[in-house]
Amino acid sequence: MLTLTYHSLETLTKPDIQTCHRQFADLRRTNLWQDAVAGGITGFELTHGKAGWHPHSHSLIDADYIPVVALSREWRKHSAGAMVVHIKQVQPQNGVEEVVKYTAKATTFYTSPPLVAQYLAATHKTRFLTTFGTFYRASDPLPIHKSSPLHPTPFDPYNPIPPGAPTLTLCPICGSDHIQLIGRVEDDQIPDTPPVQIPF
User: Fold this and answer.
1) Better-predicted residue by pLDDT, 76 or 104
2) 113, 167, 184, 192: which could join 147 in a potential S-S bond, CB 3.0 to 4.6 Å?
3) Is residue 73 one of the residues assigned to a domain?
């Protein structure tokens, strides 16, 4: 789990966020990063405090050991002097939760309408979750590497799933089973029913 901080900002604009994304992309192009990191998933987060807006990112990376001093040196070069870097070994399921659980700690600014307006304007159509390397397109339908046929669920008899359509797959990130649907599931299969008179 890698946490990077960026320079604090007095005001928040869309170009500021784009600069943060570009700085992280520059770090990923370094020899240090490419020699050690196979891939990862990154969540970008914004908080607000006495020093203004505080951008930082949390990344779960598939990596060999990286000396924090060397990583901090590279980050300082590519982030115009931002130095704070924290890296530790974690279990994948714990790392994913940390990365995706929030994009902003709104409690740090939700009581200030001007700050909320600034946040909404700066983050409109902004990507807060990025995958790369071995995690690239991890949110797309996954290849089926552990599957078994499922049956329509008993609590949904009016929307039967075509035989063989769903499969049970093992998530490569967290290791948990999840349902993946292959093909289109018809959504107009609920039969007509007479209207029900509700007594008053």
Assistant:
1) 76
2) 167
3) yes
Domain-ending residue, one of 111, 133, 155? 133
Give the 3-state secondary structure of the chain.
CEEEECCCECCCCHHHHHHHHHHHHHHHCCHHHHHHEEEEEEEEEEEEECCEEEEEEEEEEEECCCCHHHHHHHHHHHCCCCCCEEECCCCHHHHHHHHHCCCECHHHCCCCHHHHHHHHHHHCCCCCEEEEECCCCCCCCCCCCCCCECCCCCCCCCCCCCCCCEEEEECCCCCCEEEEECCCCCCCCCCCCCCCCCCC
**pLDDT for the residue numbered 184:** 40
pTM for this one? 0.65
Residue 73: how many CB atoms within 10 A of its CB?
13
Enter the tokens of residue 18: 């784009």
pLDDT in tens, 77-103: 999 888 788 998 887 667 777 787 767
